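TL;DR need structure tokens for one chain.
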Amino acid sequence: MFDRAPGAVYLECIEAMGFNKYENGRQNMLQIIGYLGCVYLVFKGVEIFLAASESDDETVRNAAVWALVAAIGAAIGFAIWLNSQASSMPRL
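>> reply
TL;DR here they are.
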């Protein structure tokens, strides 16, 4: 089981997932950064929602709910767009 170095096992796993060690490294990194942007959008929506949930004003709470829904929707839309852009890039 432990007859190979951990680095070799890691590279085999990466290649099994369809990534080459050198191929498309930049676009994979850009895709990860884009996904982090999606997570940031969701966290900011949750932050706005939690901050406004303590308010007594119904209008503020409704706006916070819509902000949360918009943030989640934008994150999903951005992730879908990001995947379509990444899949349309030619392999190097």
